[in-house]
Amino acid sequence: MELHRTDEGFALYKEKTQIGFCALTPAAKGAAITAFGIEPQWRRKGYGSYLLKEALRAYAGYDRETATVFTAPLPADAAELAFWAKFGFAAEGRQLVRRRTPDLTAVKFVQDFLAARLAQPRLCIDATCGNGGDTAFLCGITAPEGKVVGFDVQEAAIASTRKHLEQLGVPAARYELHCQSHADLLQVVQPGTADAVMFNFGWLPGADHAVFSTAQSSIPALQAALEAVRPGGVVSAILYSGQVIGTDEKQTVLEYLRALPLKSFTVLVCDFANWAETAPLPCIILKK
């Protein structure tokens, strides 16, 4: 089975024979599906589900952080209507509509908080670059004359972050990236000068999951970050647990954060009450 892009949208092939098609017109956020079909002899075998799922995926239909709207012709057959309903389409007037609002992820929660809290910060630190998502976010909220400093011990993460920023057109003068431990950030940043420091612990997405952060480096890094931020500054940290990395880092960091003196810091641990216990846990430290 092969999926081909066409001028109209997508074509699904099996053994070099086209068995399905999806014609669509891209929209700003989503797409309008104008025609969709699977050859009769290949129906009810999962090919239609595969084709529609891939078409949605290609236009951010499964991106948890993107709002999308997809439309499709209203079918006359009840069975076809049930098929589209499996993918979130519902009848609205004379067409089917699939609306998806962004989920509130731990990353989005922290980013929204920082964007609302900080007014054109001048110096921000991404202490765990990963693939550059937080680095790009910080570049977007800093003042035009500001700078973002990024750290990661993995060369692949630094390369991925640099590529991401270049693809977004972020001027090179707006950031600097360091392939070194975030525990050493005070070797690069002066104490009391940063507006925000972001940590997203765990592992590099898409890389070897055997390489992940631990409390042995995370606690010193948090200590350095709290020294690096100015009064009124913010340190954020997203903690992880699970079968691969266990719970040691998460529990150790939580103990450290809860022991911070109230006279110097306000600590928020933002638990998503109806998520799994292994879900990412956003924490925010406000320096007084």
Automatic annotation (TrEMBL):
InterPro entries: Acyl_CoA_acyltransferase, GNAT_dom, MnmM_MeTrfase, SAM-dependent_MTases_sf. Gene3D superfamilies: 3.40.630.30, Vaccinia Virus protein VP39. This is GNAT family N-acetyltransferase. Residues 1-114 form the N-acetyltransferase domain. One of its GO terms (molecular function) is acyltransferase activity, transferring groups other than amino-acyl groups. It holds the Pfam family rRNA_methylase. CDD domains: AdoMet_MTases (cd02440), NAT_SF (cd04301). It comes from the Bacteria. Keywords: Acyltransferase, Transferase. Its EC number is 2.3.1.-. PROSITE patterns: GNAT.
